[in-house]
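#struct-queue
[09:14] JT: dropping the first one here, sequence first, then the C-alpha coordinates:
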Amino acid sequence: MKKKHFDEVDGDRRLTITTENFKIKVFYPIIDTVLMQLNIRFKAMDNVCKTFDFLNPNNLLSLREDNIVKESYDFIQTYKDDISSDFTGQILSLKELIKNKNLKTINEMANFILTNDIATSYSEILVACTIFLTLPVTVATAERLFSKLKIIKNYLRNSCSQNRLSNIAILNIEQKRTSELKTDKLIKDFSNSKARKMKFV
Protein backbone atom coordinates (compact mmCIF):
# COMPACT_ATOMS: atom_id res chain seq x y z
CA MET A 1 0.00 0.00 0.00
CA LYS A 2 1.32 3.42 -0.99
CA LYS A 3 2.35 5.64 1.87
CA LYS A 4 0.15 8.72 2.14
CA HIS A 5 1.33 12.08 3.43
CA PHE A 6 -0.70 14.05 5.94
CA ASP A 7 -1.91 16.63 3.38
CA GLU A 8 -2.88 14.20 0.64
CA VAL A 9 -6.44 13.35 -0.30
CA ASP A 10 -7.60 10.09 -1.84
CA GLY A 11 -7.94 10.44 -5.60
CA ASP A 12 -11.21 8.55 -5.72
CA ARG A 13 -12.75 10.23 -2.71
CA ARG A 14 -16.29 11.40 -3.39
CA LEU A 15 -18.07 14.41 -1.98
CA THR A 16 -20.48 13.35 0.72
CA ILE A 17 -22.49 16.57 0.67
CA THR A 18 -26.16 16.06 -0.15
CA THR A 19 -28.35 18.27 -2.31
CA GLU A 20 -30.27 19.53 0.70
CA ASN A 21 -27.06 20.24 2.57
CA PHE A 22 -25.74 22.19 -0.43
CA LYS A 23 -28.90 24.29 -0.55
CA ILE A 24 -28.72 25.18 3.13
CA LYS A 25 -24.99 25.83 3.42
CA VAL A 26 -24.12 27.26 0.00
CA PHE A 27 -27.04 28.18 -2.26
CA TYR A 28 -29.32 29.94 0.22
CA PRO A 29 -26.55 32.05 1.83
CA ILE A 30 -25.43 33.23 -1.62
CA ILE A 31 -28.99 34.17 -2.61
CA ASP A 32 -29.49 36.00 0.71
CA THR A 33 -26.29 37.98 0.20
CA VAL A 34 -27.22 38.94 -3.37
CA LEU A 35 -30.72 40.03 -2.35
CA MET A 36 -29.39 42.06 0.56
CA GLN A 37 -26.89 43.87 -1.67
CA LEU A 38 -29.56 44.57 -4.29
CA ASN A 39 -31.92 45.94 -1.65
CA ILE A 40 -29.23 48.26 -0.28
CA ARG A 41 -28.36 49.60 -3.73
CA PHE A 42 -31.95 50.02 -4.90
CA LYS A 43 -32.86 51.72 -1.64
CA ALA A 44 -30.10 54.28 -2.17
CA MET A 45 -31.23 54.97 -5.74
CA ASP A 46 -34.85 55.14 -4.60
CA ASN A 47 -33.94 57.88 -2.13
CA VAL A 48 -32.26 59.84 -4.91
CA CYS A 49 -35.30 59.46 -7.16
CA LYS A 50 -37.58 60.69 -4.38
CA THR A 51 -35.43 63.79 -3.98
CA PHE A 52 -35.91 64.66 -7.67
CA ASP A 53 -39.46 63.35 -7.93
CA PHE A 54 -41.12 66.77 -7.82
CA LEU A 55 -39.06 67.84 -10.86
CA ASN A 56 -40.86 65.33 -13.04
CA PRO A 57 -43.20 67.41 -15.25
CA ASN A 58 -46.25 65.28 -14.45
CA ASN A 59 -45.66 65.59 -10.71
CA LEU A 60 -44.77 69.26 -10.97
CA LEU A 61 -48.06 70.09 -12.68
CA SER A 62 -50.09 68.12 -10.14
CA LEU A 63 -48.46 69.63 -7.03
CA ARG A 64 -49.90 72.66 -5.26
CA GLU A 65 -47.79 75.78 -4.95
CA ASP A 66 -47.13 75.34 -1.22
CA ASN A 67 -45.96 71.77 -1.81
CA ILE A 68 -43.65 72.89 -4.60
CA VAL A 69 -42.16 75.55 -2.32
CA LYS A 70 -41.56 72.96 0.41
CA GLU A 71 -40.05 70.41 -2.00
CA SER A 72 -37.83 73.01 -3.62
CA TYR A 73 -36.63 74.26 -0.23
CA ASP A 74 -35.65 70.73 0.80
CA PHE A 75 -33.96 70.27 -2.56
CA ILE A 76 -31.94 73.47 -2.13
CA GLN A 77 -30.80 72.29 1.30
CA THR A 78 -29.67 68.98 -0.19
CA TYR A 79 -27.74 70.61 -3.04
CA LYS A 80 -26.91 73.96 -1.43
CA ASP A 81 -23.47 74.04 -3.08
CA ASP A 82 -25.01 73.82 -6.56
CA ILE A 83 -28.52 75.29 -6.33
CA SER A 84 -29.31 78.84 -5.21
CA SER A 85 -32.47 80.23 -3.63
CA ASP A 86 -33.64 81.40 -7.08
CA PHE A 87 -34.63 77.80 -7.77
CA THR A 88 -38.02 78.13 -6.06
CA GLY A 89 -39.13 81.10 -8.14
CA GLN A 90 -37.89 79.48 -11.34
CA ILE A 91 -39.72 76.21 -10.71
CA LEU A 92 -43.00 78.03 -10.04
CA SER A 93 -42.57 80.05 -13.21
CA LEU A 94 -41.69 76.99 -15.27
CA LYS A 95 -44.79 75.18 -14.06
CA GLU A 96 -46.96 77.75 -15.82
CA LEU A 97 -44.82 77.59 -18.94
CA ILE A 98 -45.02 73.81 -19.45
CA LYS A 99 -48.73 73.36 -18.76
CA ASN A 100 -49.65 72.51 -22.34
CA LYS A 101 -46.31 71.14 -23.53
CA ASN A 102 -46.94 67.44 -22.80
CA LEU A 103 -43.54 66.90 -21.19
CA LYS A 104 -43.19 63.57 -19.41
CA THR A 105 -39.62 63.25 -18.16
CA ILE A 106 -36.91 65.41 -16.61
CA ASN A 107 -34.83 64.82 -19.72
CA GLU A 108 -37.60 66.25 -21.92
CA MET A 109 -37.90 69.24 -19.61
CA ALA A 110 -34.15 69.92 -19.84
CA ASN A 111 -34.32 69.67 -23.64
CA PHE A 112 -37.30 72.03 -23.65
CA ILE A 113 -35.31 74.64 -21.71
CA LEU A 114 -32.34 74.32 -24.05
CA THR A 115 -34.20 74.23 -27.36
CA ASN A 116 -36.33 77.24 -26.46
CA ASP A 117 -33.24 79.23 -25.46
CA ILE A 118 -34.51 79.96 -21.94
CA ALA A 119 -31.55 78.46 -20.09
CA THR A 120 -30.59 81.89 -18.72
CA SER A 121 -34.01 82.36 -17.15
CA TYR A 122 -34.16 78.84 -15.74
CA SER A 123 -30.49 78.20 -15.05
CA GLU A 124 -31.05 76.67 -11.60
CA ILE A 125 -33.60 74.19 -12.95
CA LEU A 126 -31.23 73.24 -15.74
CA VAL A 127 -28.49 72.58 -13.18
CA ALA A 128 -30.90 70.40 -11.18
CA CYS A 129 -31.85 68.45 -14.32
CA THR A 130 -28.18 68.02 -15.19
CA ILE A 131 -27.41 66.66 -11.71
CA PHE A 132 -30.21 64.12 -12.00
CA LEU A 133 -29.34 63.04 -15.54
CA THR A 134 -25.65 62.59 -14.76
CA LEU A 135 -26.13 60.55 -11.60
CA PRO A 136 -24.75 57.03 -12.10
CA VAL A 137 -27.42 54.36 -12.40
CA THR A 138 -25.13 51.77 -10.82
CA VAL A 139 -21.79 51.67 -9.04
CA ALA A 140 -20.38 49.25 -11.61
CA THR A 141 -18.11 51.92 -13.11
CA ALA A 142 -16.61 52.74 -9.73
CA GLU A 143 -16.16 49.05 -8.96
CA ARG A 144 -14.39 48.53 -12.29
CA LEU A 145 -12.16 51.50 -11.50
CA PHE A 146 -11.02 50.03 -8.19
CA SER A 147 -10.59 46.65 -9.84
CA LYS A 148 -8.28 48.22 -12.42
CA LEU A 149 -6.36 50.11 -9.74
CA LYS A 150 -5.68 46.85 -7.91
CA ILE A 151 -4.22 45.42 -11.12
CA ILE A 152 -2.16 48.52 -11.90
CA LYS A 153 -0.77 49.37 -8.47
CA ASN A 154 0.74 46.06 -7.46
CA TYR A 155 3.86 45.51 -5.39
CA LEU A 156 6.04 46.21 -8.44
CA ARG A 157 4.50 49.67 -8.87
CA ASN A 158 4.19 50.51 -5.21
CA SER A 159 6.11 53.77 -5.60
CA CYS A 160 3.90 54.98 -8.47
CA SER A 161 2.93 58.64 -8.03
CA GLN A 162 -0.71 59.70 -7.85
CA ASN A 163 -0.57 61.55 -11.16
CA ARG A 164 1.01 58.63 -13.01
CA LEU A 165 -1.39 56.18 -11.41
CA SER A 166 -4.38 58.26 -12.51
CA ASN A 167 -3.07 58.50 -16.07
CA ILE A 168 -2.41 54.76 -16.32
CA ALA A 169 -5.84 54.02 -14.83
CA ILE A 170 -7.57 56.22 -17.41
CA LEU A 171 -5.68 54.51 -20.24
CA ASN A 172 -6.63 51.12 -18.85
CA ILE A 173 -10.28 51.94 -18.23
CA GLU A 174 -10.77 53.65 -21.59
CA GLN A 175 -9.21 50.78 -23.54
CA LYS A 176 -11.36 51.35 -26.59
CA ARG A 177 -10.16 54.91 -27.04
CA THR A 178 -6.62 53.98 -26.05
CA SER A 179 -6.46 51.40 -28.83
CA GLU A 180 -7.33 54.14 -31.35
CA LEU A 181 -4.32 56.25 -30.37
CA LYS A 182 -1.36 56.37 -32.74
CA THR A 183 1.33 55.12 -30.41
CA ASP A 184 4.19 55.63 -32.86
CA LYS A 185 3.42 59.34 -33.12
CA LEU A 186 3.02 59.65 -29.35
CA ILE A 187 6.37 57.94 -28.74
CA LYS A 188 8.06 60.18 -31.30
CA ASP A 189 6.56 63.33 -29.78
CA PHE A 190 7.56 62.20 -26.30
CA SER A 191 11.14 61.42 -27.36
CA ASN A 192 11.43 64.80 -29.09
CA SER A 193 10.20 66.62 -26.02
CA LYS A 194 12.70 64.79 -23.82
CA ALA A 195 15.64 65.02 -26.20
CA ARG A 196 18.62 66.84 -24.72
CA LYS A 197 20.55 67.32 -27.93
CA MET A 198 20.42 70.82 -29.28
CA LYS A 199 20.80 71.69 -32.93
CA PHE A 200 23.17 74.63 -33.39
CA VAL A 201 22.97 74.68 -37.19
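[09:21] JT: and here's the second one, same format:
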Amino acid sequence: MALLYETVPTFEDTWIECLGDLGRYRMAIEDDNLKDREVWTSVSRHWYSKASDKAPTTGRLYHHLAILARPNALQQLFYYAKSLCVPIPFLSARESIMTLFDPHLNGSPTRLQEIDAAFVRAHGILFSGKSGDQFASSVNEFIGSLDGHIARNTKRWTENGYYIAVALGCALLEYGSESNSIMMAIKTSRTEDTDVQMDDSETSVTSQKFLDALDFVTRTHNIVFLRFGDPNVNPYLHVTLSFLYHMSQFPTAIGYLEAKMPWKLISLMLNTLLKECPSVDRIESEDFPRPNKEIPRPLPEDFAQRGLLWVDKYYPDDWFSSKVDDDEKYFEVASMTEERQDRCLWLGCRLASSGNWLTYDKSTRQFGVPPQYDVEVPGVGDGSAAQPQGANDDDVIIPDIQAEGP
Protein backbone atom coordinates (compact mmCIF):
# COMPACT_ATOMS: atom_id res chain seq x y z
CA MET A 1 0.00 0.00 0.00
CA ALA A 2 2.86 2.36 0.81
CA LEU A 3 4.33 1.55 -2.61
CA LEU A 4 1.04 2.47 -4.29
CA TYR A 5 1.00 5.73 -2.34
CA GLU A 6 4.44 6.59 -3.70
CA THR A 7 4.05 5.34 -7.27
CA VAL A 8 0.40 6.04 -8.16
CA PRO A 9 -0.19 9.60 -6.92
CA THR A 10 -3.45 9.91 -8.88
CA PHE A 11 -5.22 8.03 -6.09
CA GLU A 12 -3.14 9.52 -3.29
CA ASP A 13 -6.15 10.40 -1.12
CA THR A 14 -7.43 6.83 -1.33
CA TRP A 15 -4.06 5.31 -0.47
CA ILE A 16 -3.66 7.61 2.53
CA GLU A 17 -6.99 6.57 4.01
CA CYS A 18 -6.26 2.91 3.28
CA LEU A 19 -2.97 3.20 5.16
CA GLY A 20 -4.96 4.56 8.09
CA ASP A 21 -7.36 1.63 7.81
CA LEU A 22 -4.51 -0.88 7.81
CA GLY A 23 -2.99 0.73 10.89
CA ARG A 24 -6.37 0.64 12.66
CA TYR A 25 -6.89 -3.03 11.79
CA ARG A 26 -3.42 -3.89 13.06
CA MET A 27 -4.14 -1.94 16.24
CA ALA A 28 -7.35 -3.93 16.76
CA ILE A 29 -5.57 -7.29 16.76
CA GLU A 30 -2.79 -6.22 19.14
CA ASP A 31 -4.76 -7.06 22.28
CA ASP A 32 -1.90 -8.66 24.17
CA ASN A 33 0.85 -6.15 23.48
CA LEU A 34 -0.05 -2.68 24.73
CA LYS A 35 3.12 -1.11 23.36
CA ASP A 36 2.51 -2.41 19.84
CA ARG A 37 -1.11 -1.34 20.06
CA GLU A 38 -0.06 2.22 20.91
CA VAL A 39 2.41 2.23 18.02
CA TRP A 40 -0.22 1.17 15.50
CA THR A 41 -2.72 3.62 16.97
CA SER A 42 -0.20 6.40 16.37
CA VAL A 43 0.48 5.19 12.82
CA SER A 44 -3.22 5.03 12.00
CA ARG A 45 -3.88 8.46 13.54
CA HIS A 46 -1.08 9.94 11.42
CA TRP A 47 -2.60 8.72 8.15
CA TYR A 48 -6.17 9.65 9.05
CA SER A 49 -5.03 13.12 10.10
CA LYS A 50 -3.20 13.47 6.80
CA ALA A 51 -6.33 12.35 4.97
CA SER A 52 -8.50 14.83 6.88
CA ASP A 53 -6.12 17.63 5.90
CA LYS A 54 -6.83 16.81 2.27
CA ALA A 55 -10.58 16.33 2.80
CA PRO A 56 -11.51 18.43 5.86
CA THR A 57 -15.26 18.31 5.17
CA THR A 58 -15.44 14.49 5.11
CA GLY A 59 -16.97 13.24 8.34
CA ARG A 60 -15.87 9.63 7.90
CA LEU A 61 -12.27 10.52 8.72
CA TYR A 62 -13.22 12.21 12.01
CA HIS A 63 -15.23 9.13 12.92
CA HIS A 64 -12.10 7.02 12.51
CA LEU A 65 -10.09 9.50 14.59
CA ALA A 66 -12.77 9.26 17.30
CA ILE A 67 -12.22 5.52 17.55
CA LEU A 68 -8.48 6.08 17.89
CA ALA A 69 -8.97 8.73 20.59
CA ARG A 70 -9.87 6.16 23.24
CA PRO A 71 -9.68 6.42 26.22
CA ASN A 72 -9.83 10.24 25.95
CA ALA A 73 -13.62 10.58 26.14
CA LEU A 74 -13.64 14.35 25.65
CA GLN A 75 -11.58 14.04 22.47
CA GLN A 76 -13.77 11.16 21.32
CA LEU A 77 -16.88 13.28 21.79
CA PHE A 78 -15.24 16.10 19.83
CA TYR A 79 -14.42 13.87 16.86
CA TYR A 80 -17.73 12.01 16.84
CA ALA A 81 -19.69 15.26 16.99
CA LYS A 82 -17.52 16.79 14.28
CA SER A 83 -18.05 13.79 12.01
CA LEU A 84 -21.77 14.65 12.02
CA CYS A 85 -21.46 18.43 11.65
CA VAL A 86 -19.45 18.78 8.47
CA PRO A 87 -20.78 19.21 4.91
CA ILE A 88 -20.26 15.48 4.22
CA PRO A 89 -21.41 13.89 7.51
CA PHE A 90 -20.74 10.26 8.33
CA LEU A 91 -24.18 9.10 9.40
CA SER A 92 -22.95 5.74 10.68
CA ALA A 93 -21.31 7.70 13.49
CA ARG A 94 -24.79 7.99 15.01
CA GLU A 95 -24.47 4.33 15.92
CA SER A 96 -20.77 4.33 16.81
CA ILE A 97 -21.08 7.28 19.17
CA MET A 98 -23.31 5.22 21.44
CA THR A 99 -20.28 3.10 22.39
CA LEU A 100 -19.04 6.28 24.07
CA PHE A 101 -22.37 7.27 25.59
CA ASP A 102 -23.83 3.93 26.75
CA PRO A 103 -21.51 3.36 29.74
CA HIS A 104 -22.37 6.82 31.06
CA LEU A 105 -26.09 6.41 30.46
CA ASN A 106 -26.15 2.95 32.03
CA GLY A 107 -24.28 4.00 35.14
CA SER A 108 -21.28 1.78 34.39
CA PRO A 109 -18.06 2.81 36.17
CA THR A 110 -15.61 4.85 34.09
CA ARG A 111 -12.14 6.22 34.68
CA LEU A 112 -13.10 9.77 33.78
CA GLN A 113 -12.98 12.72 36.13
CA GLU A 114 -16.46 13.42 37.44
CA ILE A 115 -16.73 16.72 35.57
CA ASP A 116 -15.80 15.10 32.24
CA ALA A 117 -18.16 12.19 32.87
CA ALA A 118 -21.00 14.65 33.59
CA PHE A 119 -20.26 16.55 30.36
CA VAL A 120 -20.21 13.40 28.23
CA ARG A 121 -23.34 12.06 29.94
CA ALA A 122 -25.23 15.31 29.28
CA HIS A 123 -24.36 15.07 25.59
CA GLY A 124 -25.35 11.41 25.57
CA ILE A 125 -28.78 12.31 26.92
CA LEU A 126 -29.19 15.13 24.40
CA PHE A 127 -28.12 12.89 21.54
CA SER A 128 -30.03 9.72 22.39
CA GLY A 129 -33.01 10.96 24.37
CA LYS A 130 -32.28 8.24 26.94
CA SER A 131 -32.11 8.78 30.71
CA GLY A 132 -33.71 12.20 30.40
CA ASP A 133 -34.24 12.34 34.16
CA GLN A 134 -30.45 12.60 34.58
CA PHE A 135 -29.96 15.57 32.27
CA ALA A 136 -30.50 18.37 34.78
CA SER A 137 -28.30 16.75 37.42
CA SER A 138 -25.55 16.06 34.86
CA VAL A 139 -25.53 19.66 33.65
CA ASN A 140 -25.63 20.96 37.23
CA GLU A 141 -22.69 18.75 38.17
CA PHE A 142 -20.66 19.99 35.20
CA ILE A 143 -21.54 23.66 35.70
CA GLY A 144 -20.98 23.54 39.44
CA SER A 145 -17.42 22.25 39.03
CA LEU A 146 -16.39 24.09 35.87
CA ASP A 147 -14.84 27.30 37.20
CA GLY A 148 -12.72 25.55 39.80
CA HIS A 149 -11.72 22.93 37.23
CA ILE A 150 -10.49 25.61 34.82
CA ALA A 151 -8.58 27.35 37.62
CA ARG A 152 -6.83 24.14 38.64
CA ASN A 153 -5.98 22.98 35.14
CA THR A 154 -4.70 26.38 33.89
CA LYS A 155 -2.95 25.87 30.52
CA ARG A 156 -4.18 22.31 30.23
CA TRP A 157 -7.70 23.68 29.78
CA THR A 158 -6.82 25.48 26.54
CA GLU A 159 -7.20 22.24 24.60
CA ASN A 160 -10.21 21.06 26.58
CA GLY A 161 -11.75 24.47 26.05
CA TYR A 162 -12.01 24.22 22.29
CA TYR A 163 -13.07 20.57 22.46
CA ILE A 164 -15.91 21.62 24.76
CA ALA A 165 -16.84 24.65 22.65
CA VAL A 166 -17.00 22.57 19.46
CA ALA A 167 -19.09 19.88 21.16
CA LEU A 168 -21.50 22.53 22.45
CA GLY A 169 -21.79 24.07 18.99
CA CYS A 170 -22.61 20.64 17.58
CA ALA A 171 -25.22 20.17 20.32
CA LEU A 172 -26.94 23.37 19.16
CA LEU A 173 -27.09 21.84 15.68
CA GLU A 174 -28.51 18.69 17.30
CA TYR A 175 -25.46 16.85 15.99
CA GLY A 176 -26.24 17.58 12.36
CA SER A 177 -29.93 16.68 12.46
CA GLU A 178 -31.72 17.85 9.32
CA SER A 179 -34.75 18.77 11.43
CA ASN A 180 -32.73 21.12 13.63
CA SER A 181 -34.11 24.67 13.52
CA ILE A 182 -30.74 26.29 12.83
CA MET A 183 -29.78 23.75 10.17
CA MET A 184 -33.11 24.27 8.43
CA ALA A 185 -32.81 28.07 8.57
CA ILE A 186 -29.33 28.01 7.03
CA LYS A 187 -30.34 25.48 4.39
CA THR A 188 -33.38 27.56 3.42
CA SER A 189 -31.28 30.69 3.21
CA ARG A 190 -28.67 29.08 0.98
CA THR A 191 -31.22 27.39 -1.24
CA GLU A 192 -33.09 30.59 -1.96
CA ASP A 193 -30.02 32.83 -1.72
CA THR A 194 -31.91 34.96 0.77
CA ASP A 195 -32.97 34.35 4.33
CA VAL A 196 -36.69 33.70 4.68
CA GLN A 197 -38.17 35.67 7.55
CA MET A 198 -40.45 33.45 9.60
CA ASP A 199 -43.41 34.72 11.55
CA ASP A 200 -43.54 34.32 15.31
CA SER A 201 -45.36 30.99 15.22
CA GLU A 202 -42.76 29.46 12.91
CA THR A 203 -39.80 30.87 14.80
CA SER A 204 -41.02 29.42 18.10
CA VAL A 205 -41.18 25.85 16.78
CA THR A 206 -38.01 24.37 18.23
CA SER A 207 -37.47 20.94 19.68
CA GLN A 208 -37.07 20.39 23.40
CA LYS A 209 -33.69 18.86 22.61
CA PHE A 210 -32.57 22.16 21.09
CA LEU A 211 -33.91 24.17 24.02
CA ASP A 212 -32.11 21.90 26.49
CA ALA A 213 -28.90 22.23 24.47
CA LEU A 214 -29.26 26.01 24.37
CA ASP A 215 -29.68 26.15 28.14
CA PHE A 216 -26.63 23.90 28.58
CA VAL A 217 -24.57 26.10 26.27
CA THR A 218 -25.55 29.42 27.81
CA ARG A 219 -24.94 28.21 31.35
CA THR A 220 -21.47 27.10 30.30
CA HIS A 221 -20.84 30.48 28.65
CA ASN A 222 -21.94 32.24 31.83
CA ILE A 223 -19.21 30.48 33.79
CA VAL A 224 -16.37 30.63 31.27
CA PHE A 225 -16.93 34.24 30.23
CA LEU A 226 -16.65 35.44 33.81
CA ARG A 227 -12.97 34.51 33.80
CA PHE A 228 -11.79 37.94 32.71
CA GLY A 229 -8.08 38.09 31.99
CA ASP A 230 -7.60 34.30 31.90
CA PRO A 231 -5.87 33.51 28.58
CA ASN A 232 -6.63 29.82 28.99
CA VAL A 233 -10.31 30.37 28.14
CA ASN A 234 -9.59 32.36 24.97
CA PRO A 235 -9.65 29.30 22.67
CA TYR A 236 -13.16 28.60 23.97
CA LEU A 237 -14.08 32.24 23.34
CA HIS A 238 -12.62 32.09 19.83
CA VAL A 239 -14.65 29.02 18.85
CA THR A 240 -17.81 30.51 20.35
CA LEU A 241 -17.36 33.81 18.51
CA SER A 242 -16.69 32.06 15.20
CA PHE A 243 -19.92 30.09 15.71
CA LEU A 244 -21.92 33.23 16.49
CA TYR A 245 -20.32 35.15 13.62
CA HIS A 246 -21.44 32.49 11.16
CA MET A 247 -24.95 32.42 12.61
CA SER A 248 -25.16 36.21 12.46
CA GLN A 249 -25.15 35.96 8.67
CA PHE A 250 -28.49 34.13 8.81
CA PRO A 251 -31.11 36.27 10.60
CA THR A 252 -33.47 33.39 11.22
CA ALA A 253 -30.71 31.17 12.61
CA ILE A 254 -29.33 33.78 15.00
CA GLY A 255 -32.92 34.50 16.00
CA TYR A 256 -33.04 31.16 17.77
CA LEU A 257 -29.96 32.06 19.83
CA GLU A 258 -29.72 35.79 20.38
CA ALA A 259 -32.02 36.20 23.38
CA LYS A 260 -30.11 33.58 25.38
CA MET A 261 -26.54 34.56 24.55
CA PRO A 262 -24.65 36.42 27.33
CA TRP A 263 -23.74 39.37 25.11
CA LYS A 264 -22.88 41.59 28.07
CA LEU A 265 -20.34 39.09 29.36
CA ILE A 266 -18.90 38.70 25.87
CA SER A 267 -18.48 42.48 25.59
CA LEU A 268 -16.67 42.55 28.93
CA MET A 269 -14.38 39.72 27.85
CA LEU A 270 -13.55 41.61 24.67
CA ASN A 271 -12.86 44.82 26.58
CA THR A 272 -10.45 42.91 28.78
CA LEU A 273 -8.62 41.68 25.68
CA LEU A 274 -8.52 45.21 24.29
CA LYS A 275 -6.30 46.25 27.20
CA GLU A 276 -3.61 43.94 25.80
CA CYS A 277 -4.09 45.02 22.18
CA PRO A 278 -1.22 47.29 21.01
CA SER A 279 -2.99 48.36 17.81
CA VAL A 280 -6.62 48.30 16.74
CA ASP A 281 -5.97 48.62 13.01
CA ARG A 282 -6.17 44.91 12.30
CA ILE A 283 -9.20 44.23 14.47
CA GLU A 284 -11.18 47.14 13.05
CA SER A 285 -10.39 46.17 9.47
CA GLU A 286 -12.88 44.06 7.56
CA ASP A 287 -10.02 41.86 6.37
CA PHE A 288 -9.15 38.67 8.24
CA PRO A 289 -6.38 39.53 10.75
CA ARG A 290 -3.37 37.76 9.32
CA PRO A 291 -0.15 37.60 11.36
CA ASN A 292 2.85 39.61 10.25
CA LYS A 293 4.58 36.72 8.54
CA GLU A 294 4.47 35.27 5.06
CA ILE A 295 3.36 31.73 5.89
CA PRO A 296 0.30 31.50 8.17
CA ARG A 297 0.51 29.26 11.21
CA PRO A 298 -3.04 28.27 12.20
CA LEU A 299 -4.01 28.22 15.86
CA PRO A 300 -4.73 24.82 17.43
CA GLU A 301 -8.46 25.55 17.46
CA ASP A 302 -8.26 26.48 13.77
CA PHE A 303 -7.30 22.89 13.05
CA ALA A 304 -10.01 21.69 15.44
CA GLN A 305 -12.69 23.78 13.69
CA ARG A 306 -11.52 23.18 10.16
CA GLY A 307 -14.26 21.62 8.05
CA LEU A 308 -17.12 22.35 10.46
CA LEU A 309 -20.30 23.87 9.08
CA TRP A 310 -19.84 27.14 10.95
CA VAL A 311 -16.38 27.99 9.64
CA ASP A 312 -17.54 28.09 6.04
CA LYS A 313 -15.92 31.20 4.52
CA TYR A 314 -14.28 32.14 7.83
CA TYR A 315 -10.70 31.23 6.98
CA PRO A 316 -8.80 32.58 3.94
CA ASP A 317 -8.30 30.04 1.16
CA ASP A 318 -4.58 29.69 1.90
CA TRP A 319 -4.89 29.56 5.67
CA PHE A 320 -4.02 25.87 5.93
CA SER A 321 -1.51 25.84 3.09
CA SER A 322 1.57 25.55 5.30
CA LYS A 323 2.78 22.07 6.18
CA VAL A 324 2.49 21.46 9.91
CA ASP A 325 3.39 18.09 11.43
CA ASP A 326 0.58 16.28 13.21
CA ASP A 327 2.41 16.53 16.52
CA GLU A 328 2.67 20.31 16.16
CA LYS A 329 -0.88 21.14 15.07
CA TYR A 330 -2.18 21.38 18.60
CA PHE A 331 1.04 22.67 20.13
CA GLU A 332 0.67 26.07 21.75
CA VAL A 333 3.46 28.60 21.27
CA ALA A 334 3.84 31.98 22.96
CA SER A 335 3.10 34.06 19.86
CA MET A 336 -0.37 32.55 19.61
CA THR A 337 -1.64 34.44 22.66
CA GLU A 338 -1.62 37.81 20.91
CA GLU A 339 -2.82 36.35 17.61
CA ARG A 340 -5.78 34.68 19.33
CA GLN A 341 -6.67 37.92 21.10
CA ASP A 342 -6.66 39.76 17.77
CA ARG A 343 -8.86 37.09 16.23
CA CYS A 344 -11.41 37.28 19.05
CA LEU A 345 -11.46 41.08 18.87
CA TRP A 346 -11.82 41.00 15.08
CA LEU A 347 -14.78 38.65 15.37
CA GLY A 348 -16.21 40.92 18.05
CA CYS A 349 -15.96 43.90 15.69
CA ARG A 350 -17.65 41.92 12.93
CA LEU A 351 -20.50 40.99 15.27
CA ALA A 352 -20.72 44.60 16.43
CA SER A 353 -20.92 45.98 12.89
CA SER A 354 -24.70 45.57 12.79
CA GLY A 355 -25.24 46.83 16.33
CA ASN A 356 -27.79 44.09 16.94
CA TRP A 357 -25.90 42.15 19.63
CA LEU A 358 -22.65 43.97 20.36
CA THR A 359 -21.54 47.55 19.82
CA TYR A 360 -18.07 48.96 19.30
CA ASP A 361 -17.11 52.60 19.77
CA LYS A 362 -14.02 53.42 17.72
CA SER A 363 -13.44 56.65 19.61
CA THR A 364 -13.27 55.03 23.04
CA ARG A 365 -12.23 51.62 21.74
CA GLN A 366 -14.76 49.86 23.88
CA PHE A 367 -17.31 47.16 23.25
CA GLY A 368 -20.82 47.43 24.59
CA VAL A 369 -24.28 46.00 24.03
CA PRO A 370 -27.63 47.37 22.84
CA PRO A 371 -30.05 48.38 25.63
CA GLN A 372 -31.97 45.10 25.56
CA TYR A 373 -28.82 43.18 26.49
CA ASP A 374 -27.41 45.68 28.98
CA VAL A 375 -28.04 43.56 32.05
CA GLU A 376 -26.30 43.70 35.39
CA VAL A 377 -23.66 41.01 35.75
CA PRO A 378 -23.58 39.66 39.33
CA GLY A 379 -20.29 40.40 41.04
CA VAL A 380 -18.99 42.71 38.33
CA GLY A 381 -20.89 45.93 38.96
CA ASP A 382 -21.40 48.02 35.87
CA GLY A 383 -18.69 46.04 34.10
CA SER A 384 -16.87 49.12 32.84
CA ALA A 385 -13.59 47.85 34.24
CA ALA A 386 -13.89 44.11 34.52
CA GLN A 387 -11.15 42.58 36.62
CA PRO A 388 -9.71 39.06 36.38
CA GLN A 389 -11.81 36.67 38.38
CA GLY A 390 -10.64 33.96 40.72
CA ALA A 391 -12.10 30.49 41.00
CA ASN A 392 -15.79 30.56 41.76
CA ASP A 393 -17.84 27.41 41.65
CA ASP A 394 -21.19 29.20 41.75
CA ASP A 395 -23.40 29.04 38.70
CA VAL A 396 -23.92 32.65 37.62
CA ILE A 397 -27.33 33.26 36.14
CA ILE A 398 -27.64 35.91 33.45
CA PRO A 399 -31.27 36.93 32.94
CA ASP A 400 -32.84 35.91 29.63
CA ILE A 401 -33.51 38.85 27.37
CA GLN A 402 -36.31 39.04 24.89
CA ALA A 403 -34.77 40.37 21.72
CA GLU A 404 -36.62 43.30 20.25
CA GLY A 405 -37.99 42.97 16.79
CA PRO A 406 -36.51 44.92 13.89
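[09:30] RK: nice, looked through the second one.
[09:31] RK: The CA atoms of residues 156 and 232 lie 8 Å apart.
[09:31] JT: good to know. The first helix runs from residue 2 to 7.
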